[in-house]
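Translate sequence into structure tokens.
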Amino acid sequence: MKKNEILVTRFHHLAIVVESLIQKTDWYCQVYAAKRLGDVFSDHKQKVNVQFIQSGETLIELLEPLGKDSAVSSFLKKHGSGGIYHLAFEVNDLDLANADIRNRGGIVVSRTKGGWRDMEVMFALFLDGDEKQIVEYIKK
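Result follows.
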């Protein structure tokens, strides 16, 4: 694998952290002319409640922390409700994506199965001084 080889097959979704799904889902549906995709999903591994909405072909994941020890809880405290938390991309192979992430200077922070619609996902963190980006990779 080349250092800058791209393993991404397509963009999957954008994730936004909200304080309350009950209070904000309808508003986000109105803002983005979106519809809800199913019910709220509680992801206890990631410690979040999840509501996906869809506008056209674009998926948006609304994330609500499931307690103070959730990673999105500290993000919410620092950035407030409505902050973009991560972008997510589909890949064919999470093991190859893991190697690619490390080649590009990233750190894999978690890998789980059984998420929304039983997806297998991996999260990576990229740092540059005080700036950081969280990227989610979803096995296609």
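Note: The chain is about 20% helix and 50% strand.
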